[in-house]
From TrEMBL:
It comes from Chromobacterium sphagni. The modification 4-aspartylphosphate is found at D55. Residues 135-386 form the EAL domain. Pfam families: EAL, Response_reg. Residues 3-125 form the Response regulatory domain. The keyword Phosphoprotein applies. It comes from the Bacteria. Keywords: Phosphoprotein. Transmembrane segments: none annotated. This is Diguanylate phosphodiesterase. The keyword Phosphoprotein applies.
Length: 401
């Protein structure tokens, strides 16, 4: 039998929901009048709720803030949102819940439909629950991992849309963790930033990647690497990068540094200094994850960027989602107007390829071309393609322009 918590400030809809639940055979239902009331019940500790059904618009603490508190408490049960709000608000709440790894079973428009509620209550848990049993790497493991060379550069190609030419490759960190297996950046970048190890990690990655690049069948590929904001404060970064490239005979002019908008915001002066110096030495500079940060246009225009990378969030599903398609179109246009190379990442389907092509995106990256892969797989992928990714054959009615 489920233990259910109903959070709603409106007595009528609260009681209606309880009544429907009772009729569906759920007797173990507790009510809270707003988020604070609900948190008090949760934190009392003697109640573990299997299902929380929450309204959005409530006094004192609204449903959105409540979702954040649930995320912070790593709530493992099912979450249902009941609301009279429209799609856009509900979509952003759903996104928030997803970011917190909450199990959002669904959204119930008000007045609540009995059948719909029954379906959501009985919905089984998703196959993959990220937050269950995640064992996080520790700082000591990170330090040892860097020393022992457990970090591997993975490679994801970037292709010129017009010609299919394989122009460049982004280096993405992976950790061959002795206990957790191959882990991605979500598991360790924040830890590395917080513990001051990110710059060391980035330098190792740059060193290993440039060394591997020399052994590739196409030795003229450009390379992009992500630079964390935490590295921008490090004196000696520019000199260290130069030394690494020189040792591996990789010219600075073939390297592009990717920085996120928010990193420019956090340390604008340092960022301007470090990035300008790298640019002066010949490196390209990319605004990464463009569209997700809060940098002002003014600030962006002050940095000597050469490339704009549209965040994958706007590309994924842009072919179906008009809002994302508009953002994609506007970003591509802005990049062009500023004279930047426009790159779209997250191109996962032919439809997205065609859309990017029609919007004048110059270069694409994404699983449609190749997911990030290890050095050996990348070498084989390059050999197979002989420098050119085959342009998709476009049927007459699909032609983008
Ligand atoms: O590789 P991927 O698939 O999961 O990467 C997720 C995000 O992690 C990327 O968008 C990128 O910004 C970040 N990331 C990957 N590798 C590095 C790295 O070496 N340094 C930094 N700072 N970020 C990285
Ligand atoms: O640092 P940056 O955000 O540029 O890193 C690119 C990220 O995008 C990596 O995490 C990579 O794994 C991810 N990625 C690349 N191609 C695709 C794709 O087609 N779909 C999705 N969902 N993610 C992708
Ligand atoms: Mn990147």
């Amino acid at each position: 039998m489920h233990r259910i918590l109903v959070v709603d400030d409106d007595a009528v809809s609260q009681q209606f929901l309880v009544m429907v639940l009772n009729r569906l055979g759920h007797d173990n239902v507790v009510v809270a009048n707003d988020g604070i009331d609900a948190l008090i019940q949760l934190d009392a500790g003697d109640r573990n709720f299997d299902v929380i059904c929450c309204d959005l618009d409530m006094p004192r603490m609204d449903g959105i803030e409540f979702v954040r508190h649930l995320g912070e408490r790593c709530y493992q049960g099912k979450l249902l949102i009941s609301s009279g709000f429209d799609g856009r608000v509900l979509e952003s709440v759903a996104e928030l819940a997803r970011l917190y790894d909450l199990w959002l079973a669904g959204v119930l428009p008000k007045p609540v439909n009995r059948q719909h509620l029954l379906e959501l209550i009985s919905q089984p848990p998703p196959a993959i629950r990220h937050s269950i049993n995640i064992s996080h790497p520790t700082e000591e493991e990170l330090r040892a991992g860097i020393e022992k060379g457990q970090f591997l550069p993975f490679f994801q190609p970037q292709v010129e849309m017009e010609s299919g030419k394989i122009r460049s490759v982004e280096v993405l960190a992976r950790w061959q963790h002795p206990r957790l297996g191959l882990t991605g950046p979500q598991q360790f970048i924040e830890l590395a930033e917080g513990s001051g190890l990110i710059t060391e990690l980035t330098k190792r990655l740059l060193c290993d990647a440039t060394r591997m690049m020399a052994k590739l069948p196409d030795p003229q590929l450009d390379m992009s690497i992500n630079l964390s904001m935490a590295s921008l404060g490090e004196t000696g970064l520019v000199a260290d990068f130069e030394a690494i490239l020189e040792a591996n005979r990789f010219p600075m002019s073939r390297l592009t540094i990717e920085a996120t908008e928010n990193s420019l915001m956090a340390h604008p002066i340092r960022a301007l200094e470090v990035l300008s110096r790298l640019r002066l030495k010949g490196a390209g500079l990319a605004i990464d994850d463009f569209g997700t940060g809060f940098a002002s246009m003014d600030r962006l225009s002050r940095f000597p960027f050469t490339e704009l990378k549209i965040d994958k969030g706007f590309v994924i599903d842009a072919a179906q989602n008009p809002t994302n398609a508009s953002i994609l179109r506007a970003s591509a246009e802005l990049g062009r107007q500023l004279g930047l190379k426009v790159v779209a990442e997250g191109v996962a389907s032919l439809a997205e390829w065609l859309l990017c092509r029609s919007l004048g995106v110059e270069v694409v990256q994404g699983s449609y071309i190749s997911p990030p892969v290890d050095a050996e797989s990348f070498r084989r992928w390059l050999l197979k393609h002989q420098g050119v990714f085959p342009l998709p054959a476009i049927a007459a009615d699909q032609h983008p322009i």
